[in-house]
Amino acid sequence: MRLIIAWLLALCLMPFISPAQDYDLPAIEKILSAYAAKGNAMQVAEREWLPPAGTQVLRDRAASGPDSSYSQERSAMWAFDSAGHILSIQHREPDEHVRKGLAETQTAFYYNTQGKLIALSTGAGGKREDSVTYHYLKNGRVADYMVFNGKNELQYKITYTYKGGQVSMLRKKDRENMAIAMIRYKYGNGQLMETQHFDRNFRLTETRRYSNKQEGGREQGSFAIMGADGKMKGGASWIKDKEGRIWEENEINGDREVTAHRSYTYDTGTEPVSGKVFDALEESNITYRYTYDAQQNWIRRETYYDDLLRSVTLREIQYRR
Description:
Radius of gyration: 21 Å
């Protein structure tokens, strides 16, 4: 699951996630929303293929692949229950430790009769890794969650305190129930304005300041991370519309320089049709071309970087009748 989280957070350009929030429910729900499908989907199998090295397929030509000359880069499979909840996610990604090897990860999700997530378990290479259990208050808010290792030994526990219907404090506790990290939340006009992060000795380690405003029907948000010395360590900014579509994302370093940027354009759907990305490794214009099924889920996506085909991703979707 950590590999899945890292992959999706990289896609969403959401750096600086606190170690006290590894399995924070809103973060997990954001990840699960990325796997949503229209219609009564039962299972989705996705495979990404790369064209052979040295081959140049231009965007103004239809890509006929993948064929036997293409190589499979990664694959994923996820399943839904009859209510649309995701039951499992399986990923095969390139293994940086094994030449041409693939690392396999699996995550299973469990829900109560009200559809709330109550547990998840993760594995890699067929071996169990972490498992998490979530507990709720009578009003439906999360009370705490507990993280166990592959031997079912408690690793840590996260507890929540609320004030005025909003989270006011988060504590991370070890297996002896001793606090080892803490986050305090401050709000203004109902919006999160600041979080203060403390270590096990209750020393302030960093402060995160948030800004959010509406302009032209879009949300403009940002946050800055300040060290205990008051100096800026980094931050991020974004623009999204009322449908939740991200139009622009920026990552900022301690010198307030933009170190990574992504921007997108959309048609009438939720999938981006073009984008621009730059970071320390590349600067490219990206174009996406889709083929949809009768349920308006895409089943083929061609990705072009600077008008050259980078990958072809195919989806096979099974629906309940």
